[in-house]
Amino acid sequence: MRVSNFINLSVVAGFFIGLAIGIMKFEEPEHMLFMTVVVTISMYLISLTMAAVYIYVIEPKRSMLANKELIERQLEYFDSEFDQTERQARAIRQFISNFDFSDEKETTKKKAQK
After folding, report:
1. Residue stretches of the chain with pLDDT short of 50
2. How many Cβ atoms from other residues are within 10 Å of residue 3's Cβ?
3. Residue 104 has what pLDDT?
4. What would the pLDDT profile of 22-42 be if each residue is shown by its tens digit?
5. Burial class of 50 by CB neighbour count within 10 A (0 to 12, 13 to 18, 19+)
């Protein structure tokens, strides 16, 4: 199971556990809602802590903190993608600024004269 799936499963389970506890313990809906939120947040924090420990202890080679070369390659890739997107945006902006809108102006003037 991937770490993100584990965290998502834990949050959903925490929601339903909190809802069940809230229904069993309290009569007022506000207290039920409060219990649901508290248990859901608690389960999220617990699962996040467990996932962080798993990544740090069990998979140190895949950890982002331990693999500087992987980080450098990803940053270079993202930088090149950003440059390419920026060049495309500049080309589109240049095309729009060079586009001749005179046909639309003439059509507007003819409609205004009628």
Report:
1. none
2. 15
3. 60
4. 999 999 999 999 999 999 999
5. middle
DSSP secondary structure letters along 17-42: HHHHHHHHH-SSHHHHHHHHHHHHHH
Residue 81, both tokens? 């993608």
pLDDT for residue 52: 87
**Residue 13 tokens, joined:** 């389970």
Q: Record the tokens describing residue 58, joined without a space.
A: 């069990």
Q: Within its chain, how far is the Cα of 41 from the centroid?
A: 18
- At residue 107, what is the residue type? T
